[in-house]
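[SOLVED] Need 3D model of a two-part complex

Original post:
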Amino acid sequence: MTAVAKLKDIWVHYEGVTALESVNLNVEEKDFIGIIGPNGGGKSTLLKVMLGLVEPSKGKVEILGLPPKKNAHKIGYVAQYRNFDRNFPINVWDVVLMGRLRHAGLLRGYGKEDFKAAAEALERVDMLDLKNRHISELSGGQQQRVLIARALVTQPKLLLLDEPMSNVDSAIQKGFYDLLAELNEQMAIIMVSHDISAVSLYVKKVACLNKKLYYHGTGQITAEDLEATYQCPVELIAHGAPHRVLREHPR
Amino acid sequence: MIELLQYQFIQNALIAGLLSSIACGVIGSFVVVKRMVSISGGIAHASFGGIGLGYLLGFNPVAGALAFSLGSALVMGTVSRKTRLSADTSIGVLWATGMAMGVIFIGLAPGYAPDLFSYLFGSILTVPRSDIILMGIIDGVILLVVFMFFKEFSALSFDEEFTRILGVPSFALYLVLLCLIALTVVVLIRAVGIVLVIALITIPAAIAYQFTRSLKKMMLAAVIMGMLFTTAGLWLSYQLDIASGATIILVSAASLFISTGYVKVKNRYRHESFE
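Solution:
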């Protein structure tokens, strides 16, 4: 079985600054990996390497057995910042259809199959009844759902989420994580976040990234890992449910 | 107004205005939503080099403008995407370089270049039939290419990074879009001139942007508005005996000012009625 994503000894240098240092990562089917780390630790860069948007200075990346340039379109990606203009003249439906751009092909309009995929993706994120809304009429959380639907519309095997909760009200974050858990039944998910406690509650595996990736393949992060990542003492708070990620610690 | 239409030059001017509005409304909508206003300004000014070359070597200056605007579009697009120079820098450099080349070429050309001013500020009242035919052909090319790649151009304008991840040839498509801007510039040079091109590309689309919710409707609204502005500007300039290109721009700018004010007031009213 080919791994969903395989990164081997990845180095990235940006204008003389090292962003990633010898990163190794194996993503298998139905993994749910949370990547945490400080700002500037290379979290977004790591995702962009997988997407083929950043060329590593050294190392090898494989997405479903092929280099990202060949296979990045099989990844669903939700970027950290909204790259688009909120007032862009476009509605929910057309944003989601955009995910089918490659499937539809050049010189052809979107077809039946594309419409069906878009409707299904919107249904999954519970946004189908708002499909005719203009994007400026949506809340931050609804916009995020639309972007997830756009990522889902190609039925990806891997979903990459860069700080997905930054525009979502904390009140509805739980619903969001439930959605991700549901999606995880069909695809591997990598979620980048700076919110350690939230990540630790919902993901199956945690990795810490600060140029180097500290990855264990199990759900437990230790205080030592976090200290190595953040280079300062970090206080761990253990959440009980649904599964323990952080070990118990004396109060 | 009706008796004015008997004159061939007025007819030509009106047709030139309408043909300009089509290119402006369609391409201007992409320019506004993808924020390519300054790159369009760069392409327009760089085309002056081609006009100068036409004078120097004795071929149609509009053909020179076409070559220079397409060339500068490709260079600016490539530099902004493939080198570490920002788009901003390459625009500024080509903008001035094109103008400088135009000045030198015209200086070297024998004799005096009488209608230089008309290329800088337009002279819609002296547009010859041959130029109208050329404008019509270019309009056709623009509409055809936009029709062929509409979904790609929309995606590119909305979120370019995403189209790159999908593996759609986004860089090539971006260059094609810039070439369409270059063609639009050439269509407009006769009507409003190099210096004023940018206003006619931007203003009708900017007004449409405030009132429409889909790119297609935005384009349609921008085309109609461009037609109104060019016709009204033409009529007004004739009545007041003032420069036509500049009048068209001022009519457009005044409309943008009014529509923006209207949107502001309407939004405030809407907010107040909520409270």
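Edit: The longest strand of chain A covers residues 17-27.
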